[in-house]
Amino acid sequence: MTDAPPPDESLRPALEALAACDADVARAYAHCGLPPVRGQAPGFAGLLAIMTSQQVSVHAARAILGRLREATDPLTPDTFLALDETDLKRIGFSRQKMRYGRALAEELLTGRLDLEGLAALDDDDAIARLIRVKGIGRWTAEIYLLFALRRPDVWPVDDLAVQVAAQRLKGLAERPSRKDMVELGEAWRPHRSAAARFLWHFYRHAGIPD
């Protein structure tokens, strides 16, 4: 059995700051502790992994990515494009994700997308640049900024698990709307990435005892 990842100590300062200004976060943090270490390497492989993991279970995504790494060592735009449709289908890619993966690889090889250049852009501009690529929506771009680029104040308001966890955390009668999530996140600046990481962690925990 694979050992569970350790707590992500890099989140401690931000979560302690959030707990100091939000009693609900403080109570949940005391119960749940730090989220586990989680991340993606910046670059093609990391962004493709995020795209591949959309709308499939965690178990399925791990299996697909494991087979992909076995077939492409290393995983680069060139090695990905060398796989034909039969190869990708055997690995577990749908036709749609084949198209999206190839579009990303071609954007990088032609220089139309410069992932290293995102470092010079602020969050909004980096997201805007990413979503110009076919198959990359705002959620995918935000997750890349959050988990690969480690930006500190990314707030994925459209993520269902984050919404459900926020509803639980705040004791709301209904799942918060996008507008509600934007307003809720204002109080958590400039640590909204840590807030999102914690809400995913909280989502997987049983209820907090009274």
Task: Write out key terms for the chains shown.
Endonuclease III, domain 1, mainly alpha
What does this protein look like?
The protein is an all-alpha fold. The protein has two domains: 9-38 and 154-203, Orthogonal Bundle (Endonuclease Iii, domain 2), CATH 1.10.1670.40; 44-147, Endonuclease III, domain 1 (Orthogonal Bundle). The chain is built from twelve helices and no strands. It has helices at residues 12-21, 23-32, 44-53, 58-71, 77-81, 85-91, 95-110, 123-130, 138-147, 160-170, 178-186, 192-203. Helix 3 (44-53) packs antiparallel against helix 7 (95-110), helix 8 packs across helix 9 and helix 10 (160-170) crosses helix 12 (192-203). The longest helix is centred in the middle third of the chain and has 16 residues, at 95-110. The model has no long low-confidence stretch (mean pLDDT 95).
Structure summarized in a few sentences:
The chain has helices at residues 12-21, 23-32, 44-53, 58-71, 77-81, 85-91, 95-110, 123-130, 138-147, 160-170, 178-186, 192-203.
